[in-house]
Specification:
The chain is α+β, with helices and mostly antiparallel strands. Helix content is 49%, strand content 11%.
């Protein structure tokens, strides 16, 4: 059973995190046990359908189990995935009080919308990296105008995944150029990469250059959405309205 013990890099993530980090277990296969515990039927179903990973606790540790099909080859690649998943577990699931409107997963959009999501992500990423503020605002308006379920999926993913991807990029993959980072991402995704996640790195890089790392991270932990941050630094209208904060209750992925 391949695993990586990842502790949050305090120079990259300046806010509070679980000091024990998370144990990332790769290559899930049916029947695998952790500390003598078996996964619940719901967790097995999640890993054998659409979810790349499930989160829980065992052996007094935060545990992330990554399915076999989502386990990349190479130590650097696995270390990067471990950093991304550890961020979810040790920062977001442990401590974040998320916005009410971004807690519930809206469901996966129909397959025909995946190309549209990728296209909108690429347009916004290009506008951000080229420093074209009117184009950023136009791209954000296009995202607001997406079909409701697609828009909600985009906003949900950006809220949760952009900070995790940014953390991964600047911790484990800090030594790579932007082009090398994108190539590494494509190697995990059958040549497609993940433009919605990669966009998050470009967006938060720009926010960080404008506001500073500690400032945006503090506001994120206070419930602000990263997509609103990128809107504000480009002089655009925020995409999301204010929302109350709620507490996350952990779901036990292990059966008794």
């Amino acid at each position: 059973m391949d695993h990586i013990d990842h502790h949050i890099d305090k120079s990259v993530w300046t806010q509070v995190a679980d000091p024990n980090g998370a144990l990332i277990i790769f290559g899930y296969r049916r029947g695998m046990d952790v500390c003598g515990k078996n996964l619940s039927a719901q967790a097995v179903l999640a890993l054998e359908s659409n979810e790349d990973a499930v989160f829980g606790t065992a052996c007094d540790r935060r545990i992330v189990i990554v399915r076999d099909i989502s386990t990349p080859d190479g130590r650097l690649d696995r270390s990067a995935v471990a950093a991304h998943e550890a961020f979810h577990s040790a920062v977001q699931y442990a401590l974040l009080r998320p916005r009410l409107d971004l807690v519930g997963f809206p469901g996966y959009p129909e397959g025909r919308y995946l190309d549209l999501i990728e296209a909108r992500s690429r347009v916004l990423m290009h506008a951000i990296r080229s420093g074209n503020q009117p184009a950023v605002c136009s791209a954000l308006q296009q995202i607001r105008s997406l079909p409701e379920m697609v828009r909600d999926y985009f906003l949900y993913r950006s809220y949760w995944e952009w900070p995790a991807e940014h953390y991964m990029r600047h911790s484990v993959l800090a030594g790579l150029s932007w082009e090398e980072y994108l190539a590494r991402r494509k190697a995990w995704s059958e040549g497609r990469g993940n433009p919605l996640y990669e966009l998050g790195v470009a967006a938060l890089d720009q926010v960080e250059a404008t506001r500073g790392r500690e400032s945006w991270q503090k506001d994120y932990m206070g419930g602000e959405a990263p997509i609103n941050m990128i809107a504000v630094v480009n002089g655009c209208e925020p995409v999301l309205n204010p929302s109350i904060l709620v507490d996350i209750k952990a779901v036990d992925i292990f059966s008794e």
